[in-house]
Amino acid sequence: MKVKQLAHMIALIGVVGPAVAQQADQPMQRVEITGSSIKRVAKEGALPVQTITSDAIQKAGVTNAEALLRLISANGTGADNMTSGNNVFGADADRTSGGASFASLRGLGPNATLVLLNGRRLGNNGGSGKAVDLNSIPLAAIARVEILKDGASAIYGTDAIGGVVNFILKTDYQGLEASTTLNGTEAGGGMERRYSVVGGYGDLETNGWNVMASVTREVNDKLASSQRDFANGYQPARGLSPDTTGTPYANILTGAGTALGTGFKMPGDSTTYLQAGLLSLQGKCDSIPGMSQYASELWTNVTPITRTRYSCAYDYGGDYVMSFPVERTTGVSRGTFKINADHRVFVELLGSRTKTTAELTPLQISTSLANGNAYPVNGPYYQDLSPYIASYDKTKPIIYKWRAAPFGNRTQDITLDNYRALVALEGTLAGKYDYKLGLSKSGSKARMDLVDGYGWTDKIYAALGSGIINPWVGPGQSQTQQATDLIASTKYMGAFQHGRTTMTQLDGSISGEVLQLPAGALSLAAGFDLRRETYGFAQDVDATKILLAPGNANLAEATRYVRAVYAEALVPVLKDLEVQLAIRRDNYSLVGATTNPKVAFRYQPKEWLLFRGSASKGFLAPSFAQLYAGRLSQELPNGVIDQEGCAAHPGNPDFCAIPRLDYNTGGNPNLRPETSKQGTLGVVIEPFKNFSASLDWWAINIKDRILNRTPQIVLQNWQYLQQYIIRDPNTQVIDHVEAGWINAAGLKTRGVDVGLRYDNAYQGYKYTAVLDGTYMDSFKFAEFEGQPYKEQVSQFNTRDVYLRWKHTASLTVARGNWSALLLQRYASGYNDQVPNGGKGTPPAGFDPRVHHYTKYDLSATYTGFRNTTITVGIQNLFDEDPPFTAHNVDEVVGAGWDPRVADPRGRALSFTLKYKFF
Fold it and tell me: Beta strand 706-709 with 691-703: parallel, antiparallel or unpaired?
């Protein structure tokens, strides 16, 4: 096959921007390709590997690894990024990873995607310990990114069920280059800035050494929901309305011995009502920003109108922070020294620090007589509802539900430090065997400090019970200085929790041609991998004493050892048929040993036609947190249904509208590793000059899926999971639910990756058109043994949304010093969540589908000035808003929109200036 045709096919599988074809007169070097330990001439192989170059990354306006993964159609559509991943309620919440972003190929989760730097592992995130933080990798020093869209446990071990993302650093770099990128939104908020310097000195061939270093500084501003009209949890005509009466202007609750008593009636109405608010009775709920009359008609399935008819609601989803402010500094350096023609040693140092300020809505507090925080009768702000409610007893204290805005937004400063140091030796033995040997130490530290909005529970309750603080501050009013000082005295500000991971790795391999067969050379590789991994997590203060603090269970530092050996063979069976065989044996000190084989083939009967495929087994070892995290008690938000109890006690709010429900979660030392069987089968064709296409069918079956079972799932499947629902023996009201990490029954997923590429030249113009798409045919999942596998594709889901079709398409045109890139990102629609989580009645005309999302980016690059590259781009060219979805922030962040699918920034202008000094 011609070299140019080979270059086209290498670029085929979804390269986002233009790739430079290798010229025919250049020597074709053997390189190591992700998914194999054997060096070979770079060509379209047995495995589907997508390559994205640094040039393509720059022209696409990508400033960080999270944004890069959004361009990969095979990456999942889930809560694995900073926008959606750190704001999630319920059992899937992961606020310990603040500031981090993760890869999730095939939507299998961050734990099932292996992230490498130059083919070697990095330490996992220090907060959650679950996966590698993509944002710790500086893109300025990256030459390319290779994405293996196939399981690779036979080569790399655990974490590689979904695939591998391998960041390749620049090597033998010479010169000094500085660049800056500014990316600002038209609607305001979310400004992004990046400054980087890359320098290298020494020619490896001439001088025998090369040293490269890069430093990048990123500063991103906050983007709040209040800055975008589509972020709105109060759209009753579309079936969306907030389900909380915890409002900035408090609603009054009923209770024995309190002003509202155990219930009240209105004139001419025999109904007994259970909650009231002055603004609701006056028809003035909307006089306070973010408040509205509770839309009871949308919640009749679970919330009795007796509780909400005379209450105000609060759009807390519309008050969320979409994107946290972030400051990040990353640095990487590499020194390579040539010992002689056959051997060289190199040292790599990688470090990053990310500071994120996470900001959540203010505390929601329900007072009670038992807690001593009821509003006293003699308080200066005592609210008398007797003009509206005849039975109102103003001689008794008031209990109320309040969104405590004067305490400030709950604000957390999260600091993530990541590092890796590597010393490695590589070269050639006996002139024909390639070897490499490396020793590395990597790790991550995470620390969370509380800086506002949190306080000691006993002090807050005492302050509220004093009557000095006013929970009914009207329009234009504010707290007194005395109240402000009292609030300040209740706050806790300081260190809250910290986590740490480390990994020490010694690895080595040797490969080469060992035997000449009739069809060509037989190549073998063998290697070993020894690792020591640790993880620990601790609270710096007792979270149970801080009101609504984001507590996480302590985990005393745990250690595990991994010992692995592996072998690989490339067997030329026929002139046009090559088979890859691989096997790996991993022994984990905590979960035992596993052996995983793989077989793949590459068959090219014609110059324009290539068939390829693979079959393998994989495994995923449970993480430290999944095994050993302590037991933690948490609360579910409002509106939880006890389906069994509500059927037996219709209308009883203790069963049909549980205000708050406790649940326990934590690690499970009896977890088994996930195991998988997977395969691919593909075809690559080049039917005519300059055009190539590929189809790669893939399938993955997983058993013993490691999953954080939510209490919602337990309640939904109460017929089968009664042992996890703990009831009061006398009243049969649910006391709490047992949730946490389990081995679920499994999942089955399959689909097709599509790649198209056409490039040509016309009258001095060079143009390239590329499409990288993934069609997900099926994603079926079973939560527990005996449950039927349920199809998830195109359905709303609180974990991942498994879209039927995603693609990234690009058109690049270049001439002389100019080039332009038009980029399209498309995500298909899906069946929406029933309004209000199925807890209400959809309004007439409700659209049950979330519409597709299409985003266009346009950029132009000019290199006509000496040593200078200028790129100007418009992201979201047509200012496309995220499609409407009828869910609010509970379980998935986003009020009326979904950050897993769409970009909230709107139209943005980016400007990149790069100057090479020498």
Answer: unpaired
pLDDT of the residue at 837: 57
**At 905, which amino acid appears?**
R
pLDDT tens by residue, 512-538:
999 999 999 999 999 999 999 999 999
- Find how far residue 715's CA is from the centre of its chain: 26
SS3 472: coil
Distance between CA atoms of residues 795 and 799, nearest Å: 11
Q: What is the pLDDT of residues 8-42, one digit of tens each?
A: 333 333 333 333 233 333 444 556 677 777 765 54
Which amino acid is located at 872 in the chain? V
Residue range 673-727, pLDDT digits in tens:
999 999 999 999 999 999 999 999 999 999 999 888 888 888 888 888 888 889 9
582 closest CA partner among 155, 161, 150: 155
Q: Whole-prediction pTM value?
A: 0.89
**How many angstroms separate the CA atoms of 653 and 306, rounded?**
10
- Six-digit token pair at 862? 């000019």
User: H helices within 108-258, ranges in order?
Assistant: 153-156
Give the whole-angstrom CA distance, residue 693 versus residue 754.
8
Residue 356, CA distances (Å) to 115, 180, 218, 893 in order: 22, 21, 12, 18
Residue ranges of domains in the chain, CATH in brackets? 3-227+323-361+412-455+491-631+666-705+744-916 (2.40.170.20)
Q: Which residues contact 457 (CB under 8 A, 6 or more apart)?
A: 545, 546, 547
Contact between 622 and 110 under an 8 Å Cβ cutoff? The reply is no
Task: Name 516's bridge partners.
Answer: 521
Task: Tell me how far apart the alpha carbons of residues 151 and 584 are, in angstroms, rounded to a whole number.
Answer: 13
Q: What is the mean pLDDT of residues 908-913?
A: 95
